[in-house]
Each structure stands twice: as structure tokens, then as C-alpha cells.
Amino acid sequence: xxxxxxxxxxxxxxxxxxxxxxxxxxxxxxxxxxxxxxxxxxxxxxxxxxxxxxxxxxxxxxxxxxxxxxxxxxxxxxxxxxxxxxxxxxxxxxxxxxxxxxxxxxxxxxxxxxxxxxxxxxxxxxxxxxxxxxxxxxxxxxxxxxxxxxxxxxxxxxxxxxxxxxxxxxxxxxxxxxxxxxxxxxxxxxxxxxxxxxxxxxxxxxxxxxxxxxxxxxxxxxxxxxxxxxxxxxxxxxxxxxxxxxxxxxxxxxxxxxxxxxxxxxxxxxxxxxxxxxxxxxxxxxxxxxxxxxxxxxxxxxxxxxxxxxxxxxxxxxxxxxxxxxxxxxxxxxxxxxxxxxxxxxxxxxxxxxxxxxxxxxxxxxxxxxxxxxxxxxxxxxxxxxxxxxxxxxxxxxxxxxxxxxxxxxxxxxxxxxxxxxxxxx
Amino acid sequence: xxxxxxxxxxxxxxxxxxxxxxxxxxxxxxxxxxxxxxxxxxxxxxxxxxxxxxxxxxxxxxxxxxxxxxxxxxxxxxxxxxxxxxxxxxxxxxxxxxxxxxxxxxxxxxxxxxxxxxxxxxxxxxxxxxxxxxxxxxxxxxxxxxxxxxxxxxxxxxxxxxxxxxxxxxxxxxxxxxxxxxxxxxxxxxxxxxxxxxxxxxxxxxxxxxxxxxxxxxxxxxxxxxxxxxxxxxxxxxxxxxxxxxxxxxxxxxxxxxxxxxxxxxxxxxxxxxxxxxxxxxxxxxxxxxxxxxxxxxxxxxxxxxxxxxxxxxxxxxxxxxxxxxxxxxxxxxxxxxxxxxxxxxxxxxxxxxxxxxxxxxxxxxxxxxxxxxxxxxxxxxxxxxxxxxxxxxxxxxxxxxxxxxxxxxxxxxxxxxxxxxxxxxxxxxxxxxxxxxxxxxxxxxxxxxxxxxxxxxxxxxxxxxxxxxxxxxxxxxxxxxxxxxxxxxxxxxxxxxxxxxxxxxxxxxxxxxxxxxxxxxxxxxxxxxxxxxxxxxxxxxxxxxxxxxxxxxxxxxxxxxxxxxxxxxxxxxxxxxxxxxxxxxxxxxxxxxxxxxxxxxxxxxxxxxxxxxxxxxxxxxxxxxxxxxxxxxxxxxxxxxxxxxxxxxxxxxxxxxxxxxxxxxxxxxxxxxxxxxxxxxxxxxxxxxxxxxxxxxxxxxxxxxxxxxxxxxxxxxxxxxxxxxxxxxxxxxxxxxxxxxxxxxxxxxxxxxxxxxxxxxxxxxxxxxxxxxxxxxxxxxxxxxxxxxxxxxxxxxxxxxxxxxxxxxxxxxxxxxxxxxxxxxxxxxxxxxxxxxxxxxxxxxxxxxxxxxxxxxxxxxxxxxxxxxxxxxxxxxxxxxxxxxxxxxxxxxxxxxxxxxxxxxxxxxxxxxxxxxxxxxxxxxxxxxxxxxxxxxxxxxxxxxxxxxxxxxxxxxxxxxxxxxxxxxxxxxxxxxxxxxxxxxxxxxxxxxxxxxxxxxxxxxxxxxxxxxxxxxxxxxxxxxxxxxxxxxxxxxxxxxxxxxxxxxxxxxxxxxxxxxxxxxxxxxxxxxxxxxxxxxxxxxxxxxxxxxxxxxxxxxxxxxxxxxxxxxxxxxxxxxxxxxxxxxxxxxxxxxxxxxxxxxxxxxxxxxxxxxxxxxxxxxxxxxxxxxxxxxxxxxxxxxxxxxxxxxxxxxxxxxxxxxxxxxxxxxxxxxxxxxxxxxxxxxxxxxxxxxxxxxxxxxxxxxxxxxxxxxxxxxxxxxxxxxxxxxxxxxxxxxxxxxxxxxxxxxxxxxxxxxxxxxxxxxxxxxxxxxxxxxxxx
Lengths: 426, 1325
What we know:
By secondary structure, chain A is α/β, with parallel strands linked by helices. Chain A has 13 helices and 16 strands.
């Protein structure tokens, strides 16, 4: 595991900016903090709802980051973000865009935050990378296996810095649990458990309504690469979850993108995926090549699925000499108790992205790989998708992690990708 | 809740698309979708058909789909279907469409061609890409990049170098995509050429940089030169990409080139390169980085020192020490690196550095040693702890606190007593306390007590008292408490303060006394504070008199701040009396705010239980606190009480009930047991009142029962003073049926959310108790309901009381029988008194012999003081029997009152094999008591079987290691004790220390599953230690301490009862592993007797009995508890053989035979019962009884009526317990059985064994041979003994008394065939 680096110490001492912005907006000179404007990372954001504003709020706290532009297909959301940024900076400089290409064409912008609906994450990230931007994208970063492959390939093609919004990789209690598993102190790890939220797929359409003016809601852009369907305001208000065309893997990645990712990390499987996936009701059991079991089971809210009730998104790692379980509350349960050491409680909750966004900006400067880089995201997202496909098919599937293809299962293989609506392509 | 009908066209699949479609073959499914597409179905259905054809479509679908490619709405869906179909006709169709379509539709088709990499399309694509004016030129270029044939690549290179300016960026992207294809085909050279072309092209910087990145990386180690060149570039994009490449490019020579470069680079780049090198590690890195620690640039030095922590070793210590001895950020970073630095010899180097360092730096390095956990530094640190420099001494003590072991405590104490500096003394005390915590609890205080005995100086004595106070424990307490009376003021003060901070309840009485009469006011206040704090701790453990104690403390508190303290503690006591006490303080202006706040907190906790008390207290708070914050809260509570005062929140619940394939609306009409006339065996559990403060009326069934598509029943009793018309108002999620006094009063089969109070039903209440039964069905997600009673006009209904725990007949009448009479409902059908029923505790030993217990055998060698005391307080039976000669059948019989041979199962359980021997639906002892309102807890060994499943969900019915390995521990046990009448269970499946599974069961799961094979090597080895099967063991499962774990669980159960339900009777079944083989007495008992390991184990069992007795006393239960101790069969062969030989102790004395034998030694067991005020103390009974009788006897105790089909071999022996009718046998015949189901029968002195020999052990060879007796009737097929004349069963009277043989044999047959040996229980008697 990479050592934890303190961003503040780095900033104080490096005195360097790699991505030199060509233009410095006038308002920047009056910005906060002590970092000279010429050394700031200039940030834009694409598709910002409630979660996006939460993450952006943390990014605005960074003294060496200057947020300058918001793109959203909904006027109300554009205005909300502008008000938030301008309020924070005490100026009126945040520029609003409906068309993301206008934002991406700006040469001064170094990095973008992407927090659109799930079906846009991969394509927006890809377009940003091709425009030379570093990318922080909320998870799930791609709603199909194909999306995740294209995204990782593009980040590699352009050598961009990418951080998947799986912030639990940067949060103390989860890191503690993963380190325990990786240290051998639990003995040989034989089973890891990832919580998932209740699986569901909705193939339906809401009733059609007249499309609003595209300056208010640009429905065509909102749909983007997803198949066409009639407009209904509920979708753009955030009620798109669970619909096959907009969501990922039977919603398995809602939590699985975090928890399966942590399990992959715990068993040192960041460069591969499990081979077999078998659904048992709402639980999916996967096996790695070395026999380690990955159990994706539901619950965590109210101790369903026998979780110990340590908060949402719990994970549990079991070895032949001990086990550890933790979740978003920051609390940790483990055996033997002596492994706890002095730290009894981690105060940061699992949803808090502060450390994760800091790690992203550190890497924007150093060009090092981020904590949840595109390669890590690719493997753990693919594992989730493979599991979801097994569940949707209602049968065991076998996956070849090298070819990234199912073995002897044509239907499963055909579910790896979906055609993008024209004119969108990767 | 009902699925909300918003998505009109929704096809929600909660079980995955596969399930719904499994019925049809893919071909049939394809056909169905094609029919849809050819029909005039709505757009949605056609779109869905296309999406499904993406998975099942074949060439057959292509013509239909191709026909849709030009469709404005469905064109995209047609591509969705076609892209994954593996057939050349798809490509042909796309190529054909290129010529026909335009705009977005054309772009889409080109994108599909790109996805499919159709090489035949290159010519067409080239044409489209060549025209700068073409709206699809960029798409065509991208497609060429995906196809990447030679022809396509040539076209792309042309577009990149000579094409239109606005297409260069897409051309560059396509070139790189093509290069990736070429790399996949191992065409490195061609790929490099393309990347070189991109970095040379006239494109924006970040695109060139992308080309450069791969131009470096794809070249491999040969790319090093290009890498260095880019690292030196003036262009930020290129420099950034080089930093990335410096991480991606492998190879020793690359590392070396970077190590060489780092020395030459400019300062700013050096910093970034140091980071890269620290990630790469490898040869030369350490040296190159160490060299930069001496850089002229401060930032570089810092980065170098930081990196050394990651890549350095012992050789880096000198450099780091030098920097660490400096100041500022460099020193801080160097110290951090010293803390994390790896490598052999590093600790030693830092230690010697510490010894050389001076002043503040030495302090810092002592801290480094502590953080690095250098235990080898202990001796050196003891020397430093004696330093004249207080800062050094303090740091050394702090480090010793982490590093020292208990054997260093005396040395640390010695130093403490000569230390003068205050801060050092404090640190030294801390360190000693910290180290003592690691010592054996019994000896923690030893060294400090020894020092105290010899210390004379008051300051030293005070210091030691502070240390002892924090170490805690009985001995320390005695010393500190004694010092309270010390003549020296300093010593006295230290003692009082140590007591005031005491960590357990031990100090409470002394503190209370000090609070009353200590000479110093300060001490009185300190003591009161300490006392109140200890009360707070006790409050959490359910101390009955806690409110009284708070009241006492309140009376002692003369100052306002002391009162506030008491109030703060009182706020945590959820009791009506506490509420009154808090409200009483409202008159005192000085503490009014605190009193109000405490009252509000308590009221919130008790308002559900006692609304009126809460209301009256809140009215007082409002009057006293007026506008304060607490008044606001109090008003809220009043509002809540007003709003929900009429809601019924006390319910008991049964269920969930479900049926395969039936959904909630069908379940509504299925009559499950509770709604069957005269329902039997329904298990009612209390339902938690609503916990959502915003919706207190709402009861949450989801939380209680969970799941979807099921039904539950809830029951409560309504007492009406006068009876008369009323209205029942309901809200439910989802459907609801309600019966009042057995009559259906409301039914509504719906799916909805629970909204108070949507349903209304007019009802008529009877005067007295009215049972209200409701059924609530569940569709999905939330599962809730609410109910209230009001007058017919909606106004408040007077004279109503609700009691969910009321006893009475709530069952529905048979059809046509009409509503039951008032007496039936109010009087109940049981003869049990409505008074307080006694608690029942049954402690079952394992393999404890008649001769193992002192009060049964004066020659017993292991002391059993508690059992002997119990016998003095109650009755001791001399002719009590286990129903069987081995564990499993006996346990079955105790729990069911039925002989186990009737199940047909011989043998015993030894692993994870099930199913539970107790049949589902059979009335059990705990279930019977539960129906009488008892809380039932089972702790310890179960041994009657539980079902486990393998990963495929198949039940495991075998014993042995392999089945344990197969268990899927994520699955719940369906037939655990909690499914057989116990509210709670914690224990083991079989024998915890001998059988294949070494793990605990909690409820219906194994929370910590086994992970490895039992390692027997660390276990004790002695003649009694055999018998552990090489099974699977859970982490942390300690074979030697299982009985202490069981004891802890039972004690917690008792404490929980005392705290949460002191008025509810309970049944505790405590089943020990003691004294079964292997004789692993707990660590605390080892060597405690002179009778060897097995003697120690017997002593441990006696201790367990003693602890449970103490708990009953302590919690105030003893006087109303029937306590029984017995054993499951006679003593084990191994222990008897060795104990006879080694210790002259005979566990079977005075009987013939041991465990497994049908002779008395195999089943005549100790049986002691105590019930203060009912059972005569120190009595004995020679009545013949059997453990099957526990059930019918308990039924008599609680007034339960046993049905005919339960407890078939159980006699009510209560008269014998109570010493009544001593001359009449309480049971005329008694049956015996062995593990192989050999039978015997007893009447008075006569005992007939329906077999030859022992029925168990083989006496013809081996260890038992010395104990064989001559066969006095070798030809007889059975054995007849007269126990009165021949208690040793030496003479077989088979031929001498054929008439008795005949009588007993016939009786035995009769008992076998009629299915019972207990008297018939005619209905109504």
C-alpha cells in the first residue's frame, strides 16, 4: 500500500506547479489561502447534484484549488453551484455552461469533477481526458464492463490522473481493516464480505411529458449515450436510480463499487477479479483463483444479512486467525481484540471525501497514481458487473480476468457492453 | 408497502431478468421479440424487444432490426440489438446503411461499425473521413482507429500529418487507438512509429504529451533516454507526462538513469524526482536520496529525509539523526522517518544515538524508541528514568509505560519513590499503572502493596496509594480504604481521592460513609462525587434500589454543584420513581435547570410505560422552567402524549407466517395457526413499542420480523371498566384483519403505507378484559401498523387499560360457536394463580456421578461446598434418574418430558449433523413456560441436534470433520433452541470440547465460524485429557474456558432479567460441559483440589452452581426461584477408572456400573432442588423420580395444562419436592434406556433389564474388565434385581421371580406401544 502522504506538508515544501494554467482569471488574484494563483489547480465541474455539491464543497476547501466553471444540463443546478462557489470565493467568477465541450475547451482548466448521473460518468470522463483534463469521477465510473474498459484505456492513452470516487479507500477505519487483512495478522484470508444494497432492475419508462426548453433542461444531453426515452421530470430530479438504462449492474455498484473494491484491496487483488460468481438469492458468492471467497451480501442498514451493524457499506475480512468488520460509522469490530491497538474509533464517516480529494490534487501535481486510479477502478467495477450479470441471469458464471470475458456464456458476454446512442462514442 | 404505481410502463424485475425468462428457450424468446417488432406494439415494447434481442438475437433477427436502422426513435435501439450479434449479416447491414443514412443515424451506424471493427468498411470510412466538411468525419476516423488494418493506419497517418486542421485531434486519437490495437498484436515497432507521429504532429500540447508518454513507455528500458529528455523539458505537459512515465517504465537501468538525473536536476524537479525514486526503490536509490539530504535547498533536504523513511535502512540512521538533532521542519520530518525506518540494526542504532544525544533531542529519541516498540531499550530507559533532567526522566517513564513488562515494576517503583519532580512522579505513576495492566489480575497490585508496606515518607505513601487506586482490585482496595484513616493528612487525602476515582462498585459503601461524615468538606464532596459516579455505573446494570440510592445521595448533597451531579446521574435512570425524584428538585432555584433537564430525559424514556407520570412531571417542569429549553422539550412531550395517548403501543407478536408462492394478498385469506379456532402452540413475543419519535404510534414489524410476502399476528388485551360501544381505528402496511373477543370486526386486504388512522370499525367492548387479535400482511419494504380505541364519535374513551401481557384465552371460537363468554376471556383457562410465578433455574451437569458430590458421598475427594449448601437449603433426592445413560437422549427427555427412544434415534450427536431431535411443533419445557409468560434462556451445551446447510443449501445430516468443512455459516440454523421454545440461546451444538465443531452458537447462527483444525498441542495432557476429536475450531474458542463463557452468559441473562423485566418470571436452563471428558478445568481452577484434573473440574462445576446461586441472591430472585441441579447420566469410564486408582475417589459410589451402563451407576444421578418457603430445607427424599418429570412438575408449578400429545413420560413429582405424601410413590414405573436403545423398567425395588450385560460398556476386556461381576444367571435373556435387598445389582433374580419379570416385561411393552408412560391427561382435567 502506498504510504499516506500529507498534502499540506507537500504543498508547503514543493513550491511547484506542473500544470501551468495559461490564463489566470481576474478573480483568482483575490482568492483565499496563501498559494499564488499561478500555482493553483484550476477546477471545473460537470453534472453536479447533491452528492456533487458535497464533494465539491471539500474541493473548495483546498487552498491551492480554484474552481472556475460549472457545466450542467439543468439551469437550476448550474445556478446553485455558481451561488455556492461565488459565495465561497466572494466574487462572481464562476462561469456556467450547458454544453460540456465549452467547459472542456477552456485551456486554463486542469481538472474536472464529474458527478453526473451514472450513465454519463464514463463518457464525460473520457471526453475530459481527451481534452487534457485530470478527472475525479463519482462512482460507479461506468455502467457496463465495456464502459470501465474504455475509461481506463483512455486514461492510460492520455496519461491523465484519474480518481474514482470510491473515497473509502482513503478513510481511516477502512484502511485500518484492509491493512490488517494485508498484514497477515488475521492469518490467511479465506473469505471477504462486501455489503451490497438490495438488487433491482427496472426496465420501464415513466410516462412521457413535454420536453422543457433546453436552456432549462437539456433532455437530449441529459440522456447522452443512454437509449432514447420520453422526458419525465422525475429522472432529472435525481429519480433515475434503478432504471436499467441509467443505472449500473442491478444497482449492485451503488455500494459494491466501494465494498467490493475494499475487498479486492484487502486480498491484494487490485490487478485481477474473481473467476466465478454464483447468486444465492440476494447474496452473490465469488471465488478468486486462489480459492478466496468474496461474498456480496445485502444489508448494513439494520443488520440484515447478519452484519454487525457498524454503519452503511460494511465490509468484513476473515482469515484463519481472526477477522475484522467495519462500516461507515467508523467503528471497528475485530478478533482477536488485541489487534485493535490504541485506536478504538475513527471519527471520519465513510461518505466523507476530504482525504480522497486531497489525494487526487496531490497526484495532479506529482503525476503519481491515485489511491483509486483507473486500473484499480477497472478491476473492482468489473467484478461488480460480473456479479450483477450472474444475478440477472440467475446462474453461476465464470469470468476470465485476463481476457475480461465470460467463459462459455454467450448471453453473459453480450451483457458486457451496450450500444451508445448516436452521436456519442468513446 | 405497495409498489407506487408511478411507472406505468414499468417492468420491474426484482429477481433478475433470467428468472422470468427461464421458462422459454433463447430461440423462443427471440421469436417472441420479433413478433413484437413486426406488430403495431407501442414504442416502449418494441424498444424493450430490441434490448432483449441484444442478448438472445441471432442472424434471424437481423433483417427486421436492419429495417429499423433509419427509424428516428428505434434506430438506436436496433443498433443496441445488432452490435452484440455475432454474425456477418450484421456488418453487411451496417455497411449498407452507411450509404442510405445521414446525420445522427449515420453517425450511429459508423460507431457500430467501429465497435464491430469491420475491416470491410475501411474503404467507405476513408471516404467519409477524407472530407473535412463531412459531419461524420470524426466518427469515421475513430472507426478507422478501431479497425487498424494497414490500410486504415495509413489513412490515419495521412489525416494526422496532411489532413484538415480541425480533424487532427480526432486523427491523433484514432492513431493512438490504432497503436493500442497494434500493440495487442505485438507490433511494437509500428505502434512506436504511430506514437512518434503523434508527438511530432501539429496538435495541442496534451495530445503530443500523450504520444510522448507512450513513445517512452512502449520502448521499454530503451526509452530511458527519451524519458530523461522529457523530464528536462520546458513544457509543463511534457514534464508531467515524463513524471508519470518515470513511474510506469520498469527496469534497473531506468532507475539508475533517474538516480543519476536526480543529482543533476534543478531543485524543484529534484523534489518530484525524489518522490518517483522513493516509489521505485531499487539499487542506488537510497544512496542518491541520502546524498540529497545535504542539498543546499531546504525543500530538497526535507523531501530527501522524508523519502529515506521509506527506502532507508540502518545505514540511514546517521543522516537522519543528524537532521533530527537540528530544528524546524527538517528535524520533524527526520524524526518521522526515524519512526518508520525499517531494516536490521536500525533499533540498535537509534538506541545508541539516544544515549549520545543531549537534552531535548534525547527526549525526542526516547519517544522514537517507544513508538518503534523497542522493548530491548527497557534497561537503558530505566537508567534514563533516574536522570536528573526531569524532561528526560519523564520521557523515559512515558516510554517505559509502553515498553516495560510487569517484572520491571519493582524497579520502576524504586525510582518513583526517590523522584522529587512533580511532573516526573505523575508520569512514573502513569507508567506503573500502565505496565501493571498487563500483569496477571490477581498479582497486579503485589509490588505496589509491598512498597507501601515498607514506605515511610508520606509523599511516597501518597504516591503508592494513587498507583494502587488506579490499578484497582480487592487487595488494592483494602490497602487504600485502610489509609483513609491515616493520621497523616497527605496520605489520607491521597487515599480519599483514590477511592473517589475507584473504578468499580466496591468503593460505594465507603464513599457513601465518607460523604456523610468525613472531617473535611472537600473530602465529603469528593466522596459524594465518586459515589454518584459509581451509581451511574450501577444504573446501567439494573440495580433495583438505584432510585433510593440517588435519593440518599441527593439528601447528602448540600451544595448546588453536588446536587447537579446527582441529577446528571439520575437522568440516566429510566424509572418513574427517578422521574418523581427529579421533579421534586424543581423547587430548588439553584438546580432547577438541571432538574428540569433530567426530568425531560427520564420522561422521554418512560412516557411509553407510564403516560400519566410523564404528563404530571412535564406539567411541573413547564410551571417551574417557564420559557427555558426544558420547558420547550416538556411541551413537546406533552404534545406527543396528547397526540398518541390513545394509541395502543403494547402488543405481543407471533410470526412471521408465509407460504411458498403466495403473496401478501393471498396470505390475507390463509388462516395460520393464531386464527385457527382454539389455536395451539402460538409463540407470542413482546413487540417493541414505536421508536421513531416522529411516529410513536407506529409499530414496526419489519424490525421485529423482517422480510417480504408474509403475515404476522399481534395480540393485546383491552380492559374496559364498564364496557360499551367504541371505535377501533387502524392504519396498516399492508392488509389488516382484526378480531375482538374472538369475533372478526374489521378486514381490509390492501397494499399501502401505514397512515394513522385510515380504517375505522365500530366495536362493542365487554366490561373486563377483551382480547384484541390482529393480522397484518406484508407486501414489501416497510411493514407497520398502528391502532387506537376511541368513542364512536372519535372522542376520547374513558376507563380503558391496555396490557399486552395479560393472561387469558384469546383464541378464536370454532365456526358457529359464537363469541365466548365473559368468564372464558377474563378468567382464563389455566388454574394458575395470577400472582407472581416463581422463576425456574435448571442446572444440568454433564457426566457428574452420584458419588462425585460431597452430600451424596462422604468419601468424595473434590470439595463441592456449594452443592452441599444447596442440599442444606433444599431437598436432596437419593433415587433420581436420568432417563438415559448418555447425553443426547437425556437432554431430549428433559426438554420434552418424553423418552427419547420413542423418536427411534439411537446414538448421540457429535458434529453438525441434524436435524434437531425435538420435532417441530412438539411442546417443550421452555415453550410451555413461555406461553405462561416466562422469559426462557438456554445457555451451554445443547446436544439435541441442529441443522446446518452446505453452500448448495443442502441440510447436513452427518457427523465428522468433512461435514463441518462443508457448512455454509452464512445460513441460519432453522431448528436452533430459539425455535424450540427458548427466547435466547448461547452455547454449543454438541459437547464443546470433544466434538467436531469447536464454535459457539448464538441464537440461530454461529457468529464466529470455525476457520482451522483444532491444534491439540497447547492443551493440557494428563490421563483425563483424551477425547478431543480433530474437528474445526473458531478463532478465539478456548477449550479450557467454555464453562466460564457459559456462566457469563447465564449471569448476563439473570442481570438482564433483573434490569429489564424484574416482574416477569424466567426460566434458565444452564447446561455445562463440566464434568465431561476431557477434564479441562478452567485456568482458575487448575490445581485447586487434591483430586487431580478431574477433581478440579468437579470443583469448577460446584463453583458455577455457587456463582448462579450468588447471582440469584444478589439480584433478589432467590426467594422466588425454584432451583434444580442434576446430571445427565453417570460418571465417565475414564474418570472413574483413574480417579479410583489415583485418588481413591469413586464417582459411581455406591452403585454398580458407570455412564452407558443400565446398572444404577449409569443413570442414578444427584438431584437437588431448592425453593425457599416451599421446599423444606435440609430434607431428603427417597422417592423414585426421573428427569423426564421436570416438565410436568414445572407445569404444576406454573399451572400450565399439558396436552395429551406432550410430555408423555413426565410425572408431576411436585408433591415429592414439597415433601408431601412421602409414602405414596409419585411415579409407579420408571423407564431406562441406553445409547443403543436397550430398555429397562423399574417398579419400587424391582428393576428389570430387558437385555443381557451392562447395555453399554464392555466388561469382558479392557479397562472395565477388573470391575466385571460374575453372571449369576448366564442363560437368562434379561436381568431382574431387587434394589432394596441388593443395591449393588449382584444377583440376577430372572429365574427366581418369573412373575415379576412377566409383569414388568408386559408393562414395558405396553409403555412402548401406547406411546406414553405418564397418566392420560383427559381434556378438561
